[in-house]
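Pilot study result, target chain (187 residues):
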Amino acid sequence: MKISGVDIRPGNILEYEGGIWKVAKIQHTQPGKGGAYMQVEMKNLQDGRKTNVRFRSADTVERVRLDTKEFQFLYEDGEMLVFMDNDTYEQINLPSDLLGDARPFLQDGMQVTLELWEEKPISVELPSQIEATIVQADAVVKGQTASSSYKPAILDNGVRIMVPPHIESGTRIVVDVYEQSYVGKAS
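Predicted structure:
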């Protein structure tokens, strides 16, 4: 589906110069002279490159719809991750760097969503929140105010996050995967 350059929004997937790009940021600019344009920051979903492109209102770009499919994470095989299609039970191997910063939060048996373009997986989306256990939490410093002070803690997957002072080692908490931040105590 073709869209005008000024209709581009963050999160759109575009086909541009033979690649598939995800729009990260946009800025609409209307200079004193000349026509308005959209400054678009994009990331290539195939090789990870980033670029900034100006689109004028007269420019058209192809907006791509990606297919999504539910998969289950089975195990890690070296640098590859093995996922199983929930419908056909077929297994596929994907490089672990496809997950980026969310990689440590992938757990055995976790249900994930794969985005497919022309039947090829180009991104893996984990659930936005998971439960994790605190394995190490620093002691509370006496005299700190409880309202806004957080302390560092290490999760069972090795990720370091900031938690409220009342959280201790062994506590199960809910963590935002993409912000890598404390959400609350697990129920």
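One observation from the pilot: Residues 154 and 160 are 4 Å apart (CA to CA). A full batch analysis is planned for the follow-on phase.
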